[in-house]
Design a protein that fits this description.
This protein is mainly alpha-helical. Helices cover about 35% and strands about 5% of the residues.
């Protein structure tokens, strides 16, 4: 299923990659939206089209309460903050069929255009 998403969306969004020799259980499938996309708008439009999404990483680790006393670089962690604002998780489960993935991918592509 992850490979299918990668093929369907790899040229539209940044998809997760698993390094050679490693595996993933794909508990979630988190993509990175293109620069300039408003994640909340994309998620709302997908929801309206019947495609549920989730944001599992809404706040960078250094902004979590448990890490508030850890040192951070003088200029903060701008890359971490930017990435936290650009990621969105698509439906991912063992019974996700190819037609459903194709519909999800087509809907996402339409909303990004």
């Amino acid at each position: 299923m992850a490979a299918c998403y990668g093929e369907l969306l790899g040229d539209a969004v940044e998809v997760p990659r698993v390094p050679a020799g490693l595996t993933s259980v794909w508990a979630q499938y988190t993509i990175r939206l293109p620069l300039g996309c408003d994640r909340d708008t994309v998620a709302a439009r997908l929801k309206a089209a019947g495609v549920p999404t989730a944001v599992y990483y809404a706040k960078s680790l250094h902004r979590q309460t448990a890490y508030r006393d850890y040192p951070v670089a003088g200029n903060g962690l701008p890359v971490s903050d930017r990435l936290a604002a650009e990621v969105l998780s698509l439906p991912m489960h063992p019974y996700l069929g190819a037609p459903t993935q194709e519909r999800i991918a087509a809907t996402l592509r339409r909303e990004l255009a």
